[in-house]
Amino acid sequence: MPAAERREQLLDATLELITRERSFEPVSMEAVAREAGVTKPVVYDLFANRTILLSALIQREERHTLHELAAAIPQSPWLEADPDDVLVDAVATFLDAVQRNPRRWLLVLHPLEGTPREIRDKVEEIREGLVQLVTELVTIGLAVRRTPGDPDVDLLTRLLIGNAEEGARMLLAKPDEYPPERLLAFIRWIISAVPRDAPYPASLATTMGGPIDLDDPVAPGDADGSRADRNDVEA
């Protein structure tokens, strides 16, 4: 087996071991070799020690997680769609990623026994990056919906993310009881409770006549609707 394929096999075995045992404690070079069905020297050929092995796993899962999160957050401007639909579609994409890669998201969504500090820091870093992206989405959405008053965008964003994350945990734990359709219906119900003066459906194109300037979300912005911070997340 080529070295690159063997490396992935060993990282997959490590992830399987961690998520099955719900702990990092059982991870050893011998345990990973046994899980992968190879001898211990094969593991040492690619990873000098346990720390390097776990670091490689962290880097791989971080890369994949950021890619899946970036796919879930639509690029602005979404000219023809109502922001409520945009947000529900984003959560649907997120839940689909959780279903397709349950072991990866178990690592992110559930603190496991013996989780190294490096992984805890990475998960928090990913979460804060997500907050920044969703804050932009919510800010534009509130403007398009013409939500009255002065809503707390930061708090609303974090509560929406918290609901999506808890829904994902429920989906992982009891997929038959909490299917995506049920979770998405609840997310839409929560969104509908936020007041709006613009009738549904409202879109950026019909309501504002152009892309939003993120420094002044009520006014049209640059014609290209660029998003520098998203590029940072996708990198």
Write up what this structure looks like.
This protein is an all-alpha fold. It has two domains: 48 residues, Arc Repressor Mutant, subunit A, CATH 1.10.10; 173 residues, Tetracycline Repressor, domain 2, CATH 1.10.357. 67% of the residues lie in helices and 3% in strands. It is built from eleven helices and two strands. Strands 1-2 form a two-stranded antiparallel ribbon. α4 packs antiparallel against α5. The protein starts with a helix and ends with a helix.
Brief description of this entry?
It contains eleven helices and two strands; from the N terminus they run ααααααααααββα. With 235 residues, the chain is an all-alpha fold.
| Average pLDDT reading | 84
- Characterize the main sheet: 2 strands, antiparallel
Question: Which term fits the overall shape?
Answer: elongated
The CATH architecture name of the largest domain reads Orthogonal Bundle
**Which strand order spans the largest sheet, edge to edge or round the barrel?**
1-2
Low-confidence stretches: 210-214, 217-235
Quickly list its features:
3% strand, elongated, Arc Repressor Mutant, subunit A, mainly alpha
Task: Describe the SSE topology.
Layout: H1 3-21, H2 29-36, H3 40-46, H4 50-72, H5 83-100, H6 102-109, H7 117-145, H8 153-173, H9 180-192, H10 204-207, E1 212-213, E2 216-220, H11 228-234
Antiparallel strand pairs: 1-2
